[in-house]
Amino acid sequence: MRRFLVLLCLVVFTSCQFSENIYINADGSGKMEFSFDGSQLMQMAGDKISESQEKAMDSTFSFKELFDTMRDSISNLSKEEQQKLKRLEAFNMHMVMDPKTSQMKFDMFTDFKKVSELQDMFKAMKSFGDIKGKEQAKSANNPFSSLGGDGSTELDYKYDGKTFKRTARIVDKEAYKQVTDSIGQMAMMFGSSKYKLNYHFPKRIKSVSNPTAMFSSDRKSFTIEFGFMDYITNPEALNLEVILEN
Fold it and tell me: What's the CA dihedral at 202, 205, 211, 212 to 10 degrees?
């Protein structure tokens, strides 16, 4: 399992289609899910990936359970780094991988009691990458650094029952420029990827600040699709304000 997760950390994000899915209930609780479709990567590098994953996999596990099996590695991290890993303990992952059908999908999900509990998933995933060592985590081959998971950005979610806000900020422009400049040749693979927002609310939506939003028939959900490289270079482009009807 750990060997396969290392493969995930190092290569899968270079050609995945990403979906950020949020489901909010009437009481403000809900579910957050990140979906990664790496089937395109499987098709391009089928033989190499098949060597590391000969059999089909359909598995669900919690990160808390995984970390319990990695106590020795985690104990060597600083207290600060161990605290960062706790961000992932509430998450579960469902992985489906079949070399024969070139299927490669990952879903990370967690429940929340209020929207303010939502976290920047990429920062949490970079914390997991840190288990393999700081130098590797900062490598240009580590996509989490390219996504601002090094602390150069912040991502917040707010919801008061009527208005929902998704706000990304670049807090260290020089550091962020360094990680985006380090992408190099990987940009060719990132270029075909998309980042989708799929948000679901308990009430009809009155307005969304992004004019490209596509609404569901009941107008309680919407989808926004953005170029993944565009998101990496300008995370603030996906900032949103959603106003619901009374």
Answer: 40
141 pLDDT higher than 60 = no
Highest mean pLDDT among 14-18, 132-136, 188-192, 237-241: 237-241
Model confidence at 127, pLDDT cuts 50, 70, 90, reads: low
Q: Which helix (H) or strand (E) holds 145?
A: helix 143-146
pLDDT of residue 137: 39
17-149-11 Cα angle (round to 5): 45
Work out the average pLDDT over 112-116. Answer: 91
What does the alpha-carbon distance between residue 138 and residue 144 come to, in Å, rounded to a whole number? 9
Buried b / exposed e over 178-211, threshold 16 CB at 10 Å, is ebbeebeebeebbeebbbebbbbbeeebeebebe
Burial 15-49 (b: 16+ CB within 10 A, else e): bbbbbbbbbbeeeeebebbbbbbbbbbbeeeeeeb
Q: Closest by alpha carbon to 72, among 10, 4, 131, 125? A: 131
